[in-house]
Design brief:
Elements lengths: L1 H23 L8 E7 L6 E3 L4 E5 L6 E7 L7 E2 L1 E2 L2 E2 L1 E3 L12 E4 L11 E7 L5 E6 L1
Antiparallel strand pairs: 1-11, 2-10, 3-9, 3-11, 4-5, 4-8, 4-10, 6-7
This protein binds calcium ion (2 copies).
């Protein structure tokens, strides 16, 4: 009898902690990791419904020029501009395109949403392989 009551107490405690965390992760202002991809030319496509979109390159990713594109099946893919600039330089002298964690945030990507969602992929213009994480 006593053991059961304690078990129930812990169950209530567990739910009290789990529920706020799970709802918070879907809230505005939080980054949700969509996934990651190792790629040599173009990454996999990840979806976004608008707002801001973040990419992070692993530290062993290739230095050089990158562009985020929005995939369209029936016309040319759109280059995604960030602060009026198309393209980002990673680990390149004089460039602050990526923060110290290798991340770059694209703000107000709503104009790239066609249909319900935008289909983003990262393109790399240097040799070798890179690893990118996508956050929505
Ligand atoms: Ca488009
Ligand atoms: Ca599209």
């Amino acid at each position: 009898m006593k053991g059961k009551r304690i078990q129930r107490y812990f169950l209530v405690l567990t739910f009290a902690f789990i529920i706020p965390f799970s709802t918070a992760s879907a809230g505005a202002g939080e980054w949700d990791l969509l996934g990651g991809d190792r790629f040599s030319d173009e990454s996999d496509i990840w979806l976004s419904g608008g707002g801001a979109f973040k990419i992070c390159l692993s530290s062993d990713s290739q230095p050089g020029y990158y562009r985020l594109y929005e995939e369209d099946p029936f016309n040319r893919d759109d280059v995604v501009y960030s602060n009026g600039v198309k393209g980002l330089y990673f680990k390149t002298a004089g460039s602050n395109d990526f923060d110290s964690n290798g991340c770059h945030v694209f703000k107000d990507i709503g104009k790239y949403v066609d249909g319900d969602q935008a289909e983003f992929y990262l393109k790399k213009y240097s040799g070798g392989e890179s690893f990118v994480w996508f956050y929505d």
